[in-house]
């Protein structure tokens, strides 16, 4: 009975309910902490609102202008070097929290985006051009250049490994 | 090319389906940021050259927030004597591994994809940390 009920409720609602339950417990047992957390929540929502709008616009434009065939040519299974480059540059240029990009990636995945390219995009989000001066300030120029080089290199290795794991029968 | 109305409807539908997940992740991140004090980070490092990189990667993986925070914390940890390899693993896993976002990533991009991606990124954060410091020693 419970299993059937759980099957009907999708994972996303179970996830949200569980997080809601944590908030409820916090409100009951540690109200000051709850206020602190809700304050933080409001602050983050306010901060991610522009990214939310940007991702919505990008998804709208991809639905409006790109047909799946065109997407496959750029980031599909047969995209080749172009696909790796698009994913690396896309990951570096994307801004805002990583979870804001899941809807767009999920959408592109449904249209045929290669899993390796999704991984490369997500890994390259670690390379943030506007934050590089900050990294130089704390760790020095040599460190920043070396780390950035290895991050881009390993994003490709990461993508290759994930592709191999998810498609074990592909040569 | 599809019509404007259809494209808007498709986008709205995709977004409304993902809305509970996004809200759930923001709630989890808020919980973490509000309840974990900055002092926690300095306490978990042991001083061991072998264990600390692993601790750095683990702590970075369960942390969340703007990468700038990881740089500031990393700078502080360095001044307190934590090794550069450990700090590098920490700032790298902070941005490449997301334990707090894992439920959302699993739901939207696939469970197997999310698990493998995070596991590979975790191992990569250690390898890249060692390689970076090794390369710097030659420069």
List keywords for this structure.
heterodimer; A: 171 residues; mainly alpha; 79% helix; globular; B: mainly alpha; 7 helices
Structure in words:
- The complex is a heterodimer of chains A (171) and B (139).
- Chain A has 171 residues and is mostly helical.
- Chain A has nine helices and no strands.
- Chain A has two domains: 1-49, no CATH class; 66-171, no CATH class.
- Chain A is globular and about 55 Å long.
- With 139 residues, chain B is mostly helical.
- Chain B has seven helices and no strands.
- In chain B, helix 4 (67-79) runs antiparallel to helix 5 (84-96).
- The chains are: A mainly alpha (171), B mainly alpha (139).
Topology:
The complex is a heterodimer of chains A (171) and B (139).
Chain A: H1 2-8, H2 11-29, H3 31-65, H4 68-75, H5 81-93, H6 102-110, H7 115-124, H8 132-139, H9 141-166
Helix pairs in contact in A: 2-3, 5-7, 7-9, 8-9
Chain B: H1 4-35, H2 39-43, H3 51-62, H4 67-79, H5 84-96, H6 102-109, H7 111-138
The biggest sheet of chain A, with number of strands, parallel, antiparallel or mixed sense and barrel status, is: none
Radius of gyration of chain B: 18 Å
Query: Helical proportion of chain B?
Result: over 70%
Mean pLDDT score of chain A: 85
- Estimated structural class of chain A: mainly alpha
Count of DSSP strands of chain B: 0
Average pLDDT, all residues of chain B:
88
Q: Report the principal-axis shape of chain B.
A: elongated
Task: Tell me the count of domains of chain B.
Answer: 1
- Biggest pleated-sheet summary of chain B: none
Low-confidence stretches of chain A: none
Offer a quick outline of the entry.
The complex is a heterodimer of chains A (171) and B (139). With 171 residues, chain A is mainly alpha-helical.
């Amino acid at each position: 009975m419970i299993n059937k009920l759980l099957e009907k409720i999708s994972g996303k609602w179970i996830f949200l309910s569980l997080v809601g339950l944590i908030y409820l417990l916090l409100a009951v047992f540690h109200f000051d902490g709850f206020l602190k957390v809700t304050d933080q929540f409001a602050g983050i929502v306010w901060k991610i609102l522009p990214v939310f709008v940007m991702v919505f616009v990008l998804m709208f434009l991809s639905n409006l202008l790109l047909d799946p065939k065109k997407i496959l040519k750029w980031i599909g299974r047969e995209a080749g070097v172009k696909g790796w480059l698009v994913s690396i540059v896309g990951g570096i240029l994307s801004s805002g929290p990583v979870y804001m990009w899941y809807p767009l990636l999920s959408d592109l995945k449904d249209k045929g985006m290669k899993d390796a390219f999704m991984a490369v995009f997500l890994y390259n989000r670690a390379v943030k051009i506007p934050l590089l001066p900050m990294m130089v300030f704390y760790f020095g120029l040599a460190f920043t250049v070396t780390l950035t080089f290895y991050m881009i290199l390993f994003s490709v290795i990461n993508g290759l490994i994930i592709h191999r794991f998810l498609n074990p029968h592909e040569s | 090319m599809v019509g404007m109305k259809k494209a808007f409807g498709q986008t709205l539908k995709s977004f409304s389906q993902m809305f509970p997940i996004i809200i759930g992740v923001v709630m989890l991140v808020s919980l973490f940021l509000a309840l974990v004090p900055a002092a926690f980070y300095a306490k978990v490092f042991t001083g061991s050259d072998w264990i600390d990189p692993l601790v750095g990667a683990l702590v970075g993986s369960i942390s969340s927030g703007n990468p700038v925070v990881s740089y500031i914390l990393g700078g502080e940890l360095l001044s307190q004597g934590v090794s550069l390899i450990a700090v590098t693993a920490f700032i790298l896993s902070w941005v490449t591994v997301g334990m707090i976002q894992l439920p959302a990533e699993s739901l939207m991009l696939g469970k197997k994809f999310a698990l493998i991606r995070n596991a590979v990124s975790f191992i990569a954060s250690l390898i890249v940390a060692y390689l970076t410091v090794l390369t710097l020693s030659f420069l």
